[in-house]
Amino acid sequence: MICKTRALSISQQGMVNNRANVALFFETALVAGLAYIPGLQLPLGTRAVAFPHFAVPSFSFFAVIMAYDELRKIFLRGGIKKSRRGRQHYDGWVVKNTYY
């Protein structure tokens, strides 16, 4: 989700790709299923993980990464200027050091 655009926020871009949305849901459900379905634990050699150990670290990591990237994009959009001909001119520290 973070790599969808270079400068647009996730709220500006939106989540309109239904295949990607289904894939995000499916991979989360697959991992949860592999971790919690009792019949799959014996053949796969896994054990149940306490829910706080499964959800809390991953969500906090997700929140930090999303916040960092949204702030980077805000600063990036502040450094993009348009010339008289309508072309974009990239300037500023954020553009020089964090833009692709």
Mean pLDDT, nearest integer? 79
Strands, count = 2
Can you tell me the overall shape?
Answer: elongated
Strand arrangement, major sheet: 1-2
Q: How much helix, percentage-wise, in residues? A: 55-70%
**Model regions low in confidence, pLDDT < 50 over at least 5 residues:** none
Compute the number of structural domains: 1
Rounded to the nearest angstrom, the distance between the terminal CA atoms is 16 Å
Strand content: 5-15%
Radius of gyration: 20 Å
Largest beta sheet, briefly? 2 strands, antiparallel
User: Structural class per helix/strand content?
Assistant: mainly alpha
Number of helices: 5
Helix and strand succession?
HHHHEEH
Tags for this entry?
mainly alpha, two-stranded antiparallel sheet, 100 residues, 5 helices, elongated
Describe this structure in words.
With 100 residues, this protein is mostly helical. It has one domain (2-98). It is built from 5 helices and 2 strands, in the order ααααββα. The chain has a two-stranded antiparallel sheet with strand order 1-2. The longest helix has 28 residues, at 51-78. The radius of gyration is 20 Å and the shape is elongated.
Question: Can you give me a brief rundown of this structure?
Answer:
The protein is mostly helical. It contains five helices and two strands, in the order ααααββα.
Architecture blueprint of SSEs:
Layout: H1 10-13, H2 18-36, H3 38-44, H4 51-78, E1 80-82, E2 88-90, H5 93-98
Antiparallel strand pairs: 1-2
Helix pairs in contact: 2-3
